[in-house]
Amino acid sequence: MTDYDLIVIGAGPVGENVADYATKRGVRAAIVEAELVGGECSYWACMPSKALLRSGHAIRAARRLAGAREAVGGALDASAVLARRSSFTDQWRDDGQVAWLESAGIDLIRGRGRLTGPGQVTVDGRTYSARAVALATGSVPVLPDIPGLAAAAPWGTREATAADHVPERLTIIGGGVAGTELAYAFTSLGSRVTVLSRAGLLDREEPFVGEHVAAALAVEGVDVRLGAVPVRVDRDPHGTVRVVLADGTEVLADELLVSTGRRPSTGDLGLDVVGIDPGAVLKVDETMLVAGTDWLYAAGDVNGRALLTHQGKYQARAAGEVIAARLHGHPVADQPWGAHAATADEVAVPRVVFSDPEVAAVGFTEAQARGRGLTVRAVEYDLGQVAGAKLHADGYSGRAKLVVDEDRGVVVGATFVGQDVAELLHAATIAIVGEVPVHRLWHAVPAYPTISEVWLRLLEAYGRPTA
Ligand SMILES: Cc1cc2nc3c(=O)[nH]c(=O)nc-3n(C[C@H](O)[C@H](O)[C@H](O)COP(=O)(O)OP(=O)(O)OC[C@H]3O[C@@H](n4cnc5c(N)ncnc54)[C@H](O)[C@@H]3O)c2cc1C
Ligand SMILES: NC(=O)c1ccc[n+]([C@@H]2O[C@H](COP(=O)([O-])OP(=O)(O)OC[C@H]3O[C@@H](n4cnc5c(N)ncnc54)[C@H](O)[C@@H]3O)[C@@H](O)[C@H]2O)c1
């Protein structure tokens, strides 16, 4: 007899879903959490960052419309925005999520979990046994090795999303997703923001994405410095932080935010005890089973496949279900697109950057598709020319792109940049996952006058089938 069928380590969105989906299939599950039930996403990432962004987006949207513009004079009420943000984190209390765990029939074990043998998890000196263990420990920020940086006590994304004040001047190192979103959040709240990006902004997306976002940030008064390489940081006794760049220039600010990526949280998990190299990226199969084991799973940020809440929860649904199937001796559907396989991780990961303009992309960029050896043709369209977009905002600016696999005649990538494009994305995700032939997409008629009409314009750019 074991204490549980399943122990999940980490009660972020992913761990909660692994436990929930397994429990619904009759598995006795416990979840171990070292901090707050709900994880990074609920308290220091997705929720607070989106709450910080929303009010600024709403004001700018109103200012783009004649008639509405006249009604929204003045600056944002920063303290009201911070208070609204705090309400979305339940004031950093997890009572609500703990109550949900109870209602779902999942036991909560508070403390830091560590593997101490196959199917064994030790928390604060007490060891629990289980037939399966799932790691959902998330990720931790990476601090670059810049002389003086650590001593200057910079903000990470935790400190920025939980901020109780708005610094007069904010420097951000890192032009990725977090840096870009938080630049918008803090410029809207009244900070003078400088973004230091060693390459272009959001440079894993189509090249026009970073160009649009950088131009829009500049309009908001953000000093975006591309190709900027920080070589030294210090903070003086008055609190002013100085970042020295490789070209000898200096940037002064009252606060410094470092958002230079994250790595899987696998340290001190006891992986070595069960024969797994703790320094290597965890290898998992399509059911999230860790290579070389028949009892250990890893889902969400910790497996490094896609550091996004929705994609981790997708993996969690597959993992929770497959753990139950295997424990009950039921058949496993791990073939591509089977119920127990996270196939979309490979070809259809949706990504939204909540900047202004928003960025929404799914599948491969053109460069990624070509890099994988696909024969593709890409088409682009100026979103500002779509009637629905013109109505949506005066002077609407944006761009859209489809990447089509010419051998299969299906869409393999889509990117939109423009105000309020996030909600366009799911249509593209369905087209990719459903492998809808491009000739059939001509029969999916976008309503007039919506921004979705860009789909028709993209198809026209691609060419109408003759048969
Ligand atoms: C600023 C920011 C904004 C973001 N915004 C978005 C967004 O808008 N949309 C989106 O999809 N993604 C967003 N992300 C990414 C998202 O936060 C992560 O992908 C998501 O939180 C991953 O969920 P997870 O459950 O794998 O890990 P986490 O949410 O990190 O949860 C892991 C949990 O495990 C616990 N834990 C770790 N080790 C142990 C241990 N040994 N024992 C017990 N407990 C342990 C931790 O305390 C934590 O509660 C954002 C990230 C950042 C940094
Ligand atoms: N809306 C969302 O879905 C959302 C929002 C925020 C964060 N996230 C997730 O959280 C994770 C972390 O976000 P992030 O922005 O920190 O990571 P990221 O990987 O998106 O960007 C990191 C940036 O830092 C730069 N960088 C890395 N090392 C550097 C160094 N030594 N000096 C200067 N620049 C350096 C990189 O070039 C890159 O531009 C991401 O994987 C992202 O998916 C998602």
Automatic annotation (TrEMBL):
Cofactors demanded by this protein: FAD
Keyword terms of this UniProt record: FAD, Flavoprotein
Annotated FAD/NAD(P)-binding domain residues: 4-311
Coiled-coil ranges (or none): none
Signal sequence coordinates: none
This protein's record includes keyword Flavoprotein: yes
Pyridine nucleotide-disulphide oxidoreductase dimerisation domain ranges (all copies): 349-455
InterPro entries assigned to the protein according to its UniProt record, in alphabetical order: FAD/NAD-bd_sf (IPR036188), FAD/NAD-binding_dom (IPR023753), FAD/NAD-linked_Rdtase_dimer_sf (IPR016156), Pyr_nuc-diS_OxRdtase (IPR001100), Pyr_nucl-diS_OxRdtase_dimer (IPR004099)
Homology family: Belongs to the class-I pyridine nucleotide-disulfide oxidoreductase family.
UniProt name for this protein: NAD(P)/FAD-dependent oxidoreductase
Source organism (scientific name): Cellulomonas fengjieae
Organism ancestry: Bacteria, Bacillati, Actinomycetota, Actinomycetes, Micrococcales
